[in-house]
Design goal:
Layout: H1 5-15, E1 25-27, E2 35-40, H2 51-59, E3 63-67, H3 76-80, H4 84-99, E4 104-110, H5 112-120, E5 129-132, H6 146-149, E6 155-157, E7 171-173, H7 174-190, E8 198-203, H8 213-220, E9 226-231, H9 247-258
Parallel strand pairs: 2-3, 2-4, 4-5, 5-8, 8-9
Antiparallel strand pairs: 1-3, 6-7
Helix pairs in contact: 4-5, 5-7
């Protein structure tokens, strides 16, 4: 069955997404090249997190699709009911949408979105991957116990600025974090099987993931072509939003890595 952006938006609307910036999106440049880019946001966020990067890539003639992961952009209760397999299936549908247009497919994933792309790289062929703030371990010491703790403490409370509340959950379900634990364990074991050319970008100022975990992930990749860059203490976990003082550099490094010369 052909996958279209209209169908993806309708699916999001049916799931309860009611803010237009939380819908999946497709950007088609006026003079597209033959390359597509799949963008995958992080846990408890929405496609809006990747929109500015998408516009930058589209300005340079890439066709870009921003996926919406199930359980995101609606209610925290919806995310609590989702499994990692559902996120992976949505990511794969995004891949198929671009492939059906006759494009080679690259991908950029942020945080948990990066893990989903690594998982999918074992099933589908990507030209290149860019992993923003990927991890093998989260910093909070109770993260490994999320499944058990979810029976007693369903949600983790977060302070989110009022302007950002339509786009990020203030309550993150611990059941969802338990799904992340499943995903990261699987990915850790499979990294030596992944040979896709990969760029990893991370930061010392990241307070979400364990220091050094992105480097460990990078070193376990079997990719013959791979690059790693770590920003300083002023750069946060989310590399794609205005809060990152080095956002322009992130965008440019991503663009340069994906700009494969025409054969």
């Amino acid at each position: 069955m052909k996958i279209t952006i209209e169908n993806e938006i309708e699916r999001a609307r049916h799931a309860g997404v009611n803010h237009p910036e939380n819908y999946p999106f497709l950007l088609t440049p006026t003079t597209p090249n033959r390359h597509g880019v799949l963008l995958v946001h992080g846990f408890s966020a929405t496609p809006r997190e990747m929109r500015a990067l998408a516009e930058h890539l589209a300005e340079h003639n890439f066709t870009v699709f921003g996926v919406r992961l199930p359980g995101h952009g609606t209610r925290p209760e919806d995310l609590a009911d989702c499994r990692a397999e559902e996120w992976l299936a949505a990511t794969e549908q995004g891949y198929q949408l671009l492939q059906q247009k006759g494009l080679t497919v690259n991908a950029v994933g942020l945080s948990t979105g990066a893990l989903l792309l690594l998982k999918l790289a074992l099933l589908r062929r990507f030209e290149r991957l860019v992993l923003l703030s990927p991890y093998l371990r989260l910093k909070h010491p109770l993260t490994p116990l999320a499944g058990l703790l979810s029976r007693f403490i369903p949600y983790q409370q977060r302070n989110i600025a009022v302007a950002d509340r339509p786009f990020y959950y203030q309550q993150r379900p611990l059941k969802g974090i338990a799904q992340i634990n499943r995903l990261r364990r699987q990915v850790k074991e499979q990294l030596p099987q992944i040979t896709t050319p990969t760029l990893v970008l991370t930061a010392k100022g990241d307070k979400t993931i364990t220091p050094g975990t992105a480097r460990q992930l990078f070193e376990r990749l079997a990719s013959p072509i791979k690059e790693y860059h770590c920003y300083g203490d002023s750069v946060p976990h989310v590399l794609t939003t205005r809060e990152n003082p080095c956002r322009k550099d992130v965008f440019n490094r991503t663009l340069n890595f994906l700009s494969i010369p025409e054969q």
